[in-house]
Design goal:
Residues 206-303 form the PpiC domain. There is one protein chain. With 455 residues, the protein is of the alpha+beta class. It is 47% helix and 17% strand. The chain is built from 14 helices and 11 strands. The strands form 3 sheets. Strands 4-3-6-5 form a 4-stranded antiparallel beta sheet. It has a 4-stranded antiparallel beta sheet with strand order 8-7-10-9. The protein has a 3-stranded antiparallel beta sheet with strand order 2-1-11. The protein is globular and about 80 Å long.
Length: 455
């Protein structure tokens, strides 16, 4: 989430809670056909089976501008937000996908406008200095750039600093509004927290999954269309699209604001349809669309671990990388011989204290890093390097262009056993989850009462 920090630990049960009432009323009305005025209950939506559309009002043909309670959203606003998504996907978005993205971004901007308006009506002000501070933090953390470089990047891809700052203002405003109007009325009892802690300890050793999700709701009538849209999103993601970017713009789950990150969940917390899928997934795998009650899910497995069990991949390693360049134009056969000789020479080194002298004699360079987390290394070498003892090396790797490299393990600090969240941390997590559920209802009420004009 840009500019703010929110918990990504959400459960899929929220969707069932949100749509049970409306779907029940809709199915009842459709099953009965066109109900009479005498039998219709307040809240029923009655739609005949043989729907006839009068006129040619296609909402997909509207220009992407709107006036929300008097505040204007321009086509430029939409274009600048869209530019960030296009840049994140390296421009690999087809025309149909671009149309869907544009409509989704317009809906997001409408919600953002409603949130800012509601905060202002509650006399909640976000100072420009705070927005600028968050913007600078985003530049550093997300882009590894200073503000000047960030401004230039946004303009180069067709966006603007003002567009991103408006998004930051919207998120800060909404967060503070929830802190005032929702959070004080959320209560999590000590018994609830203790019950959850007991369940967590009972689950020790079972697997937890850190999942990313994109959830698209679908009524029975729109099921096929939503499925096709979800399939196209999956295709875009498989072609290199940004999961985080698509989750922020498309997902209808509360996790959209954090790029779809569900945080760590156990299989029992997922709907039955997703339990089967997640159990078979490998880290880095994308699956979907998977049909669940109320819609479709696209899942991405970020990582997995065992509950309350130390993960060896969290070990902190002290490594030395020894690099030997190849002459330009070297053949693959000759490079193989040099790599073999290099590996043999490095194995003769008596630990990390001796490796620098050996490397100097070979004309190799040595780089030292004693703060490398094992899980941050490429997956194909994680297990191998965790099997080494200090002073041992991995097999050589590299390319004709980059030369040959060898990693030597100098030391290892194993992770402490995970004791799980404290009472206070778990209580805060449960409160965050309830605040986000109330926030969804709050936003739906704002949408329902809004006066929106489309141009």
């Amino acid at each position: 989430m840009i500019g703010t920090k929110q918990s990504g630990r959400k459960t899929f049960m929220r969707r069932a809670l949100l749509c049970v009432g409306s779907l029940a009323a809709l199915s009842s009305a459709m099953g009965a056909g066109v109900a009479s005025a005498q039998s219709a209950r307040q809240g029923d939506i009655v739609i005949p089976d043989d729907v006839k559309i009068f006129g040619n009002d296609n909402p997909n043909m509207r220009r992407a501008t709107a006036v929300v309670n008097g505040d204007v959203i321009t086509g430029t606003d939409v274009d600048q937000r869209l530019a960030l998504i296009v840049a994140a996907n390296q421009g690999k978005i087809d025309d149909d996908e671009m149309k869907r993205l544009r409509l989704q971004i317009l809906r997001n901007l409408i919600d953002e406008t409603l949130q800012i308006q509601e905060a202002k009506a509650a006399d909640i002000e976000v100072a420009q200095a705070e927005v600028d501070q968050s913007y600078a933090r985003v530049a550093t953390q997300n882009f590894n750039q200073n503000i000047t470089a960030m401004d230039a990047y946004l303009k180069r891809v067709g966006s603007s600093p003002e567009s991103l700052k408006r998004q930051i203002r919207g998120e800060l405003s909404w967060q503070r509004l929830l802190q005032r109007n929702v959070q004080p009325f959320i209560n999590v009892s000590d018994d609830e927290v203790n019950e959850n802690l007991a369940r967590l300890k009972a689950a020790k050793g079972t697997e937890e999954y850190r999942l990313g999700e994109i959830y698209l709701s679908a009524t029975p009538e729109a099921r096929q269309q939503v499925y096709e849209n979800a399939t196209k999103i999956v295709q875009q993601l498989r072609q290199g699209g940004s999961f985080v970017a698509y989750a922020r713009q498309y997902s209808e789950a509360t996790t959209a604001s954090v790029g779809g990150d569900l945080g760590w969940v156990r299989l029992a917390q997922l709907p039955a349809e997703l339990q089967v899928v997640a159990r078979e997934m490998e880290t880095g795998q994308l699956v979907g669309p998977v049909e669940v009650p109320g819609g479709f899910d696209i899942l991405y497995l970020i990582d997995k671990r065992q509950v309350l069990t130390a993960d060896p991949r969290d070990a902190i390693l002290a490594l030395k990388q020894i690099s030997l360049p190849f002459p330009k134009g070297i053949s693959e056969a000759e490079a193989g011989k040099r790599a073999e000789a290099f590996s043999k020479a490095m194995k003769a080194a008596k630990g990390c204290g001796d490796v620098d002298g050996v490397a100097n004699g070979l004309g190799a360079q040595v780089v030292t890093n004693d703060q490398v987390k094992a899980r941050d290394l490429p997956g194909q070498i994680q297990n191998s390097i965790l099997q080494l003892s200090p002073g041992e090396t991995l097999p050589p790797f590299g390319s004709l262009e980059d030369g040959v490299r060898i990693l030597m393990l100098c030391g290892r600090d194993d992770p402490q056993t995970d004791t799980g969240p404290s009472f206070e941390q778990l209580q805060a997590q449960l409160e965050d989850d309830r605040v986000n559920k109330r926030a969804q209802t709050y936003l739906r009420d704002l949408r329902r009462d809004a006066v929106i004009e489309y141009n």
